[in-house]
Amino acid sequence: MTHALLLPTLDADDDRVPVHADPVFAAIDRHNEALAVFAAAPQGRARARARDNLHKALADLLGTPCATRTGMLSLIRHFRRWETEETSPDAGGPEFGIAMARAADLSICLGVPPIQRHPVVLPSGRLIAPARPVATRVGRALARGAETLAALVIIAGGAGLVGIATLL
What pTM did the predictor assign? Predict the structure, then answer.
């Protein structure tokens, strides 16, 4: 399934939608406005309402087809800016993944380089490892501890069974 939602031609003469009438520009404007309102909203009910409006604007943006090549390029540029400045993959939810998939499909459709996150390089040439969230680190530590405990139980159980077998 492709996320590059394209509009068909308008009539048999192969006339296409003019650039200024592309519906994706209005959707991008609504999303930018919702981002600005959310960023300026105070805590409480106003912030929750702004967050709901932001999610609705993003859903509308993700469901709006691109009618022109310029609209596709503008949507890719908007997603790139939104990805680098406004959100992170951990906080974006499923909409973030859908937006990145749509941007990747549009990049393939247009032949432009896809969105890539480049790692930070220290002056020594060593790469900085990405920081994992606390919940991920705790989960991995618990998994390592459980695996170590299971290994110790297997070793102790095996030693006990060998001891019992030698007594028989």
Answer: 0.58
Helices 23-40 and 69-81 cross at an angle (nearest 10°) of 20
**pLDDT at res. 120:** 62
Question: Read out DSSP for 6-36?
Answer: BPPPSSTT-----GGG-HHHHHHHHHHHHHH
> How far is it, in rounded angstroms, from Cα 163 to Cα 168?
9
* Cα separation values, 131 from 81, 116, 117, 135, 136, Å: 21, 17, 14, 12, 10
Output b/e per residue, 91-130; b: 16+ Cβ within 10 A. Answer: ebeeebebbbebbbbbbebeeeeeeeeeeeeeeeeeeeee
User: 25-34, 81-90, 143-152 — which is least confidently predicted?
Assistant: 81-90
Rounded to whole angstroms, the Cα distance separating 167 from 161 reads: 10
Q: Output the pLDDT for position 14.
A: 46
> pLDDT: is 51 or 18 the higher one?
51
Instruction: Map tokens 């991008």 to a residue.
Output: 28
Contacts (Cβ under 8 Å, ≥6 apart) of 47: 38, 41
